[in-house]
Design brief:
It is a single chain. The chain contains 17 helices and 14 strands. It has 432 residues and is an alpha/beta fold. The protein has three domains: 140 residues, 3-Layer(aba) Sandwich (Rossmann fold), CATH 3.40.50.1980; 183 residues, Nitrogenase molybdenum iron protein domain (Rossmann fold); 36 residues, no CATH class. The strands form three sheets. Strands 1-11-10-9-12-13 form a six-stranded mixed sheet, with helices on both faces. Helix 10 crosses helix 11. The longest helix has 23 residues. L-histidinol binds next to helix 15.
Length: 432
Amino acid sequence: MEKELLLQDIIYLKRAEQEPESESPLLRQTVTSILKDVHENGIEAVRKYSQQFDSWNPVSFRVDAETIERAKQETSPELRASIDFAREQVHGFAMHQRSTMKDLEVETLPGVVLGHKLIPVNAVGCYVPGGRYPLIASAIMTIATAKAAGVPRVIACAPPTKEGGIHAAQLYAMATAGADEIYCVGGVQALALMSYGVDNVQPVDMVVGAGNAFVAEAKRQIFGPVGIDLLAGPSEVLVIADESADAKLIAADLLAQAEHGPTSQVILVSDSESLAKNVINEVDLWLDTSWPTAEVSRQAWQNRAEVIVCANRDEVLKIAENIASEHVEVQTSDDEWFFDRLTNYGSLFLGARSTVAYGDKAIGTNHVLPTGGAARYTGGLGVSKFLKTLTYQKISAEGTKIVAPHVADICDAEMMAGHAITARMRFDRDQN
Ligand SMILES: NC(=O)c1ccc[n+]([C@@H]2O[C@H](COP(=O)([O-])OP(=O)(O)OC[C@H]3O[C@@H](n4cnc5c(N)ncnc54)[C@H](O)[C@@H]3O)[C@@H](O)[C@H]2O)c1
Ligand SMILES: N[C@H](CO)Cc1c[nH]c[nH+]1
């Protein structure tokens, strides 16, 4: 990284020791063979992998209305109110985003009318992760956003809990977010079921949502005949902080992200060595005393954490831009300086009052976000991902006179004589 960026004075107080799981050839092969098996053998293969990875082999993977109603009753009214709040914020923000996106029709030349229509994808499959934690908010992020975009058929899959069946509050969130069909199946087999159409499940046009490295790889391999939103794999955070920041608060934000799993990437970049050292001490203190999920967070901290000290904020910016992390928090005395210059992030959290957990759960911005550097070329999930921008043309005799000769000239030069005929025929007809 130093070579690429030509940085001179950066110091690593801590370096990641492990390569991301997604780069493992074994993981890729595993995903390829599961997808192939489900493609060829349908529901029997889904059953085989569901049993193998999740000890789950129900009569039907489809969740019925009675089970959904029971899940609602099993979810406390207080938690239901918080889930409803989150759904309103996420759906509301998505609707605001939708209102900025418009159909277009314009007369670009006399008699030449061009336009585009924003048309929702017809059928979407949402993956709602639930291996380590039942990510309740993920149901809202995918399903409610697809509905806000106007997708007519939204189906969703989540893995079973250890006791069997989808976690009650997660199932309540899936139903209340507007899923038209819900299936209890996890991992690669879930993506395959939705994409290929297995048993009575009609295939979807696009699969979306986050998940572990297997899920992210499955989406990557499925892409082509079926669309995907983006590659949203194991969670990441990069905190930009200077001398003015609160080391204990930053330590908590880093460990919260590490809580996701041993492969979560957590990074601190600072132009203050003393702040960086204080954060490391605070992390150690939390882990040794009272961090509630120390067991898993410690693994990510040991294996995947980096603490980088730079000579100045320009270099901090270069590092952050190069990493293009999923979540970027800025806690400095001049947050606007970074806000004006940062171009690579999944979602940005400005100032010490904002935090990743707000975005992850309920504030309204989407938490399905690009990982593994994908923020260099895409943002996170939003209504725009579900909308196709479809163009059209209408042309009068007046317009034909202007356009056809240029088209024919280009066709001749390309030696596409057939194309030239189609333009000249129209030109000639309008002469008569
Ligand atoms: N980038 C984002 O926007 C975003 C958002 C939310 C969550 N996440 C990430 O989602 C992930 C959730 O992961 P999770 O594992 O808890 O849940 P998950 O639902 O993604 O994966 C669970 C499934 O993985 C499959 N699986 C487990 N081991 C396997 C193996 N060896 N081979 C094949 N399949 C296997 C099982 O079928 C299981 O059902 C976390 O890494 C989290 O950081 C990312
Ligand atoms: N941090 C995840 C996005 O990578 C989303 C999430 C939800 N809850 C906790 N985390």
